[in-house]
């Protein structure tokens, strides 16, 4: 009997490992796909993780109910595993196809449609993943009833870590998304073939099933380029760079750069180029040293008119700057020096003084962009400007009515700038331009340009009709001096942009928050104390992961590259934690209390680091912290399982509690706490939840 058990056990465990590899690679590719389709919005990460986790929890519950009524079958496990291997390619193709079918290409999408779209497109795969893991355990227990539930948790963690490492260190650098899907799921098809072949199923059926899954994966690779063709014009360039998706669309003679699903600029936008350059530089008598962070089409032609000695152009992504020059979106002039580095990081390390610093930035809708609108960033900029130097950037303008969220956004930026510059000039129009300096500023831009002998097409013809003294004064009067300033740790602009996101579509986040809170409370009333510990542990693990992801964006600003590494490290800690928890004896109640206390202490250390160190926190410190937290959380699962008994019912209930807690932590931290209160209070909320868990388990009889 023992030899038969071992023969049948190994193929199941191989399928569990291969499923872990497939699921993590698919999850990371799905996150990157949605970031590319929805403007790099970090809230999308939280919505994906929430959907994935809650559907996984539902799949786990369905698995238990299913197995209480039927006998677990190796053949069914194999069929489900082959379906899992094929689904990732279909999921990514479906996301790409439906994004521009359901929503206008390149447009902003509201919170609720975004959430619904994410939830529905990820549902088939996430539900099936949640179903298969406990089902694998039930198959093993059909052969060996006393098979430990913690072993399947450890085996799955091993697959997860392998998948995360495969993606983060190999696939992300060398292969496109659907090529990565193909490579990562070859393991699952091979392991499933071995499982079904070992089960005695007819070879023709096994080959047919594996062949169908392989056909779907190959079709995904072949149709990948076609899935990116825009509704209008044609796709002339596509690349998955380290920092995002880059596309160039051509419509007749016009080339448009599209980054993460957003049309950034084209080679035929003279008015924007003239405003960007001449509004600030007309204020200076003889600008020699100019810094441009990011770019705008045709701006170099306008900069040439001032005959500067040096133009430093900072662009984070070298692939992006190469594409801009290749398609003539930026002219490569003699004075131009290209620096491929994060703009904030460059200024922090540089000693160079500039006459003008010009920012060409999108709206601060992400933490990556928000970090270039904060109080500490403006302090850095001020140190790099000459005595009469100019800082200039623009934000979305208005016609006749300034909506309240937009007024608060402009007020926060104005109030933050005013802390560092004596004079801040706002010029209204299709875009509102902020011009900041220690010297006095002039509003008659055409007159200044005439005195310099600089000719323009748009500014000289339309400025006086669009930018009048009355409009300038009216805009300044709309500034609310009581609006809080924008800082790194308390990102006021992110709160305002979050509210503006809802206001733009005449919706409110509060209905969603109330429903989420009510469902969480109902669930908490229905679970045991041990399940609450695992619920709070899942909430702590994912809440901390979201904190680290958002903090990394704040301090480093390029999560698209590192998202896989961060998630992999959090997964990696679960494996040794679960292994130690399954091996170590002792009083389980005391051990849960001790590990809860450790998690509280670790979160307190994180708060102190954010306040005291901030930008000095290294990537390795983030990763080490994530590993320790996840290892502690991983330790608690087998410990709680031993406390409740290792029955099928107990295993699935604790699996579900862990996943549902993780889902709740993901959404509550990212959508409720951080946008309204900042990352410090988000970490404090996690401490509060774990304190409740500690008290509950300590007082358990």
Strand order across the largest sheet: 7-6-5-8-9-11-10
Whole-number tally of structural domains: 3
Number of helices: 24
Shape: globular
Beta strand %: 5-15%
The oligomeric status of these chains comes to single chain
| CATH architectural arrangement of the largest domain | Up-down Bundle
Summarize the structure.
This protein is of the alpha/beta class and 701 residues long.
List keywords for this structure.
seven-stranded mixed beta sheet; Growth Hormone, Chain: A; single chain; alpha/beta; Rossmann fold; 701 residues; 24 helices
Explain how this protein is built.
The chain is 67% helix and 10% strand. The protein has three domains: 1-228, Growth Hormone, Chain: A (Up-down Bundle), CATH 1.20.1250; 269-486, Vaccinia Virus protein VP39 (Rossmann fold, 3-Layer(aba) Sandwich); 508-701, MFS general substrate transporter like domains (Growth Hormone, Chain: A). The two termini are 41 Å apart. Mean pLDDT is 85; it is low at 1-7. The strands form two sheets. A seven-stranded mixed β-sheet has the order 7-6-5-8-9-11-10, sandwiched between helices. Strands 1-2-3-4 form a four-stranded antiparallel β-sheet, with helices on both faces. Helix 1 runs antiparallel to helix 6 and helix 3 packs antiparallel against helix 6 (177-199). It is of the alpha/beta class. The chain is built from 24 helices and eleven strands.
């Amino acid at each position: 009997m023992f030899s038969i058990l071992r023969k049948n056990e190994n193929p199941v465990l191989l399928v569990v490992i291969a499923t872990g590899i497939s699921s993590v690679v698919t999850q990371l590719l799905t996150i990157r796909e949605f970031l590319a389709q929805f403007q790099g919005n970090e809230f999308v990460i939280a919505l994906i993780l929430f959907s994935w986790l809650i559907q996984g929890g539902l799949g786990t519950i369905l698995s238990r109910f299913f197995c209480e009524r039927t006998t677990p079958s190796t053949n069914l496990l194999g069929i489900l595993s082959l379906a899992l291997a094929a689904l990732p390619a279909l999921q990514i193709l479906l996301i790409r196809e439906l994004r521009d079918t359901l929503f206008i290409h390149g447009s902003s999408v509201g919170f609720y449609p975004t959430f619904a779209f994410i939830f529905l497109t990820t549902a088939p795969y996430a539900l099936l993943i949640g179903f298969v893991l406990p089902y694998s355990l039930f198959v093993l227990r059909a052969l060996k009833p006393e098979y430990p539930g913690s072993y399947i948790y450890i085996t799955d963690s091993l697959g997860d870590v392998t998948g995360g490492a495969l993606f983060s260190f190999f696939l992300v650098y060398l292969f496109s998304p659907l090529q990565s899907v193909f490579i990562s799921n070859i393991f699952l098809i091979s392991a499933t073939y071995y499982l079904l072949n070992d089960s005695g199923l007819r070879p023709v059926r096994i080959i047919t099933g594996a062949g169908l899954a392989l056909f779907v994966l190959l079709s995904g690779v072949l149709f990948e380029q076609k899935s990116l063709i825009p509704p209008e014009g044609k796709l002339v360039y596509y690349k998955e760079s380290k920092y995002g998706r880059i596309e160039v669309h051509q419509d007749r003679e016009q080339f448009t750069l599209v980054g993460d699903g957003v049309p950034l600029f084209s080679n035929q936008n003279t008015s924007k180029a003239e405003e960007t350059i001449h509004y600030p530089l007309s204020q200076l008598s003889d600008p020699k040293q100019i810094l441009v962070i990011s770019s705008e089409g045709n701006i170099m032609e306008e900069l040439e008119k001032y005959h500067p000695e040096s133009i430093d152009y900072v662009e984070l992504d070298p692939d992006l700057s190469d594409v801009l020059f290749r398609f003539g979106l930026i002219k490569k002039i003699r004075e131009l020096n290209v620096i491929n580095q994060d703009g904030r990081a460059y200024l922090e390390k540089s000693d160079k003084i500039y006459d003008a610093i010009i920012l060409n930035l999108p709206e601060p809708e992400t933490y990556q962009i928000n970090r270039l609108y904060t109080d500490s960033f403006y302090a850095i900029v001020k140190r790099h400007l000459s005595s009469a130097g100019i800082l200039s950037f623009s934000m979305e303008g208005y016609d006749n009515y300034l909506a309240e969220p937009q007024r608060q956004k402009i007020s926060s930026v104005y109030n933050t700038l005013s802390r560092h510059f004596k004079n801040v000039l706002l010029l209204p129009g299709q875009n509102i331009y902020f011009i900041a300096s220690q010297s006095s500023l002039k509003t008659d831009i055409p007159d200044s340009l005439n005195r310099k002998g600089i000719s323009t097409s748009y500014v000289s013809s339309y400025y006086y009709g669009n930018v009048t003294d009355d409009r300038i004064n009216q805009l300044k009067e709309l500034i609310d001096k009581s609006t809080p300033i924008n800082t790194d740790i308390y990102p006021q602009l992110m709160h305002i942009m979050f509210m503006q996101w809802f206001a733009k579509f005449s919706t409110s986040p509060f209905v969603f928050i109330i429903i989420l809170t009510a469902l969480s409370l109902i669930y908490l009333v229905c679970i045991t104390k041990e399940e609450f510990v695992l619920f709070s542990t899942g909430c702590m693990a994912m809440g901390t992961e979201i904190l680290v992801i958002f903090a990394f964006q704040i301090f480093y600003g390029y999560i698209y590259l590192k998202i896989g590494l961060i998630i992999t490290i959090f997964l990696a800690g679960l494996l040794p934690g679960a292994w130690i928890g399954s091996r170590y004896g002792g009083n389980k109640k005391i051990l849960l209390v001790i590990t809860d206390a450790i998690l509280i202490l670790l979160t307190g250390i994180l708060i102190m680091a954010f306040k005291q160190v901030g930008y000095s926190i290294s990537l390795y410190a983030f990763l080490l912290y994530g590993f320790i937290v996840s290892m502690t959380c991983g330790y608690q699962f087998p410990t709680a399982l031993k406390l409740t008994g290792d029955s099928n019912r107990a295993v699935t209930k604790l699996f579900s509690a862990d996943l549902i807690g993780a889902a709740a932590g993901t959404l509550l931290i990212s959508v409720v706490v951080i946008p309204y209160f900042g990352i410090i209070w988000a970490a404090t909320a996690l401490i509060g939840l774990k304190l409740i868990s500690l008290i509950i388990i300590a007082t358990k009889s």
